[in-house]
Amino acid sequence: MPVIKIYDTTLRDGSQAEDITFTVEDKIRIAHKLDENGFNYIEGGWPGSNPKDVDFFEKVKHLKFEQAQIVAFGSTRSPRKRADQDPNLNQLLKAGTEVITIFGKSWDMHVQQALETDLDENLRMVAESIQYLKKNTEEVMFDAEHFFDGYKHNPEYALKVLKAAENAGADWIVLCDTNGGSMPWEVHSIFETVAGELKVKLGIHTHNDSELGVANALAAVKAGARQVQGTVNGIGERCGNCNLISVVPNLKLKMGMDCLDAKQMKKLKELSAFVDELANRSHWNHQPYVGKSAFAHKGGVHVSAIRKNRETYEHIEPELVGNQTRILVSDLSGKSNIVYKAQEFGLDIDSADPKVQELLEELKRAERLGFQYEGAEGSFELIMREALGQREEHFEFVGFRVIVEKRKEDEAPIAEATVKVMVNGVQEVTAAEGDGPVNALDKALRKALTRFYPELEEMSLYDYKVRILDESKGTSAKIRVLLESGDQNAKWGTVGVSEDIIEASWQALIDAIIYKLGVAPRHAKEKAESKPQPKLERRGSRFHLKI
Amino acid sequence: MPVIKIYDTTLRDGSQAEDITFTVEDKIRIAHKLDENGFNYIEGGWPGSNPKDVDFFEKVKHLKFEQAQIVAFGSTRSPRKRADQDPNLNQLLKAGTEVITIFGKSWDMHVQQALETDLDENLRMVAESIQYLKKNTEEVMFDAEHFFDGYKHNPEYALKVLKAAENAGADWIVLCDTNGGSMPWEVHSIFETVAGELKVKLGIHTHNDSELGVANALAAVKAGARQVQGTVNGIGERCGNCNLISVVPNLKLKMGMDCLDAKQMKKLKELSAFVDELANRSHWNHQPYVGKSAFAHKGGVHVSAIRKNRETYEHIEPELVGNQTRILVSDLSGKSNIVYKAQEFGLDIDSADPKVQELLEELKRAERLGFQYEGAEGSFELIMREALGQREEHFEFVGFRVIVEKRKEDEAPIAEATVKVMVNGVQEVTAAEGDGPVNALDKALRKALTRFYPELEEMSLYDYKVRILDESKGTSAKIRVLLESGDQNAKWGTVGVSEDIIEASWQALIDAIIYKLGVAPRHAKEKAESKPQPKLERRGSRFHLKI
């Protein structure tokens, strides 16, 4: 079982993505997480390029990592300069890491057109930079930028660059498909040729511009690569880098390579969600291996086959990467599905219980009305608990009124909501203005309830989706609103359906609040009792619903 | 240059994704778009599985497609039944398409455990189903479900199934990696072996569970596949299908295969955005080839190199797939795009005209606000005509007020709208109740205007979509409403953006009405003058907006 080293560049190449910014704090948290997950190298940044990265390396010096090594990244020395006087190289040494990676040109066109120097000088730049760093650092890696394109245009020169790096003492040479345009068979055959010419350990760095980032990395491993560079969730400039969250399970579970251990593998889903959270992106539901939908099954045929043998429709056991099989609630065909679902929620229920039959009837009725519980498992759990007599009433609805008024074409409309609820036998009437009718409703409702339930302050609204239901002839169009809410421990989806968008939103909002007050504390308790979980950081106003 | 047939299953396998629902109208619009883009086969649905798909095939019978063939999808006959008495097969024939695809089992474990029948009976099911369909249909394809997994477990039996299909007269056999767990080298070697054993044309159908959907399809083409099945943007169950929007440029631009022509290639980005729009998903910025960020460059080094030679950091010319280079600092693009777009609307405009520059500014301003004109070409044309001084004012907006009130938990809310407009110097104030606030607004507005413009009676509202815009930190969430309207001649999409959902709906509604009054008659006239067109069927009250 060959050992493959996992080299993460989420903090450097990943943060080049146009919509991603990490604070230094974010970077440190991610570095720790990567370390816990068993990643070998963590490229922290390019200290020569910006002060934030200098700051990161300064802070990281004082921190302990279990096994990962922090890497500083930079480029070869400038043309016609001495290596020991090159500010970029000295900045790298100042970062004080045990490992340094520098990139250099291996495509002749780039040397002449982008660098505007001659081919021999570039060879000297590579060699002298590595020699200088090697004198002062434990481990030095050389990233051969645009290697595959370079090799296609001028194989002789591209190889010369690698040999210069090898002779200068590089510990690793990493072949980069910088523009992401190579095909897997090209990567495989070029890599194999190179491996035959060199003795140094080789790595691979790919990009996803042809949707082949993962495939190209694997092709290189087949041809002898012993290090894979990439980012968590494939984030990065343009179409992103090779996605390590997919590469790792492919290496480990499909190719039998040695990288993360089984316990670390089980934390891949968590790592993936964590990085998205800090990057302020919603997690990709369909993400291979770790997405919420990756092992979700609907359709009676699939579900009954899955029950007989999970291998029928699952390429791996989802638990190996911390994921799980989901039987989609919309296709509730029978009692056994309900029992299965109830167990997921930690509810003890027997399929012989007459309540299960009642619940089935209730669900069928709701689905006929247009309710759908995919993505609204919070509402589903509320229905289930209600049927089991476990739903607590924290307040009673009396009424609401919403007014939206626009008086001039170039004036923003005014949205105002009045809400009446009964709490502990007392009628509360509150009103609020909002950025839109639903925002106004939300504000008025919180105003009425927070006095009694201060924990509502912890709840944020993350997402709001509206769909017009495909009306069958004759019936009137209905609207389904899906709301995603959460607190510091968890997220939950709720649903509302009505011909009126305001009412549908209202229903979903009420469910979200009831969940927060009645169900969320139970799950938080169960979770805390099973094992300690790191708390999600609360992001302030970002998630406020403004509609 | 081998010809590769592109087989799209967005409307069938794609719509299995848990978060995607297409209406029959959506499906028809997508089918036309795929046809224009040069896709060869369009799998429309599984008529045996649900009434919506039956409806789709009924409607599609009366429509004309330029070159694509519509395909009905289903399964082999049930065990121990006669093929000619199998309701599923007969339902397929009733769909009346020239091409039918059926799937069948090729993995022995599936035959025995999922189908619960014996291996020989499965061979008969495959053979007899194909024979029966072949008697009544032009072209029959056989999808060998789980072929690669089946072959790995029992190669002899898996091949037997394919031979049964070949001998029964299948025109194509398509090898499916149903669970998406295969590696590209496995797909390549198994495909090559199979190709050596059979004479029939072979296709490939892959899934993305290992983030290798595209790579696996290409590996099969390298081994002899002449048809690739997949979906637009890779949408589909679990982690999705093979993404045709990436496969096609890889085939055409990287492998030199013959599929779409150069003009159709240029519409890939538009197609990709269009399908996401109808699926109510935001377009993936980092999507290979067609994403907004796919050719976006930041960082001084990249940008200056790009200016010298685009090949330095771009693996293809983005224009080949309808995309463009974006330099993130100073994003100058566009005049030629606007002229191109104007020509599509039959507008005569010269790129030297200063109005083009004004229009560009206006569009940039609107895009910053969150407007987006993919799927809202009606609004786009209005902006364009306004810039050219061709927008007619039929009425003047004064104000509106909407009230939604709910007084008891089990009582439907009341929605009421008041609208003030000036028509021909006269102020009209009207009020109406509706099924929801937007419906009430729509009714009140029509009440005010129909007296002056009776042709508004011809206009129906077909669809209404709402999206919360993914905003960068600090700014408040905005809502985009997309409305689809139409009359007996055409359909048009309009858009509104606001923090208030009612106002966003109002904007889209106003645009739809202005388009109906000012633009629709022009196009109807042009159309009538060029060639007679079949009239779209008028949809009565079914499409009334009730929200």
Percent helix of chain A: 25-40%
Mean pLDDT across every amino acid position of chain A: 87
What spatial form of chain A do the alpha-carbon principal axes imply?
A: elongated
* Poorly predicted ranges of chain A: 471-476, 532-547
Short key terms for the protein model shown above:
homodimer; 547 residues; alpha/beta; TIM Barrel; Double Stranded RNA Binding Domain; 3 domains; 8-stranded parallel β-barrel; 18 helices; 39% helix; disordered C terminus; transferase (chains A, B); AIPM/Hcit_synth_CS (chains A, B); branched-chain amino acid biosynthesis (chains A, B)
Compose a concise summary of this entry:
2 copies of one chain form a homodimer. Chain A has 547 residues and is α/β, with parallel strands linked by helices. Chain A has helices at residues 24-36, 51-60, 87-95, 108-114, 119-136, 147-153, 155-167, 184-197, 213-222, 244-254, 262-265, 268-278, 300-308, 335-344, 354-368, 377-387, 437-450, 501-530; strands at 5-8, 41-45, 69-75, 99-105, 139-145, 172-177, 201-206, 227-230, 296-297, 326-327, 396-406, 414-423, 426-434, 460-468, 479-486, 491-498.
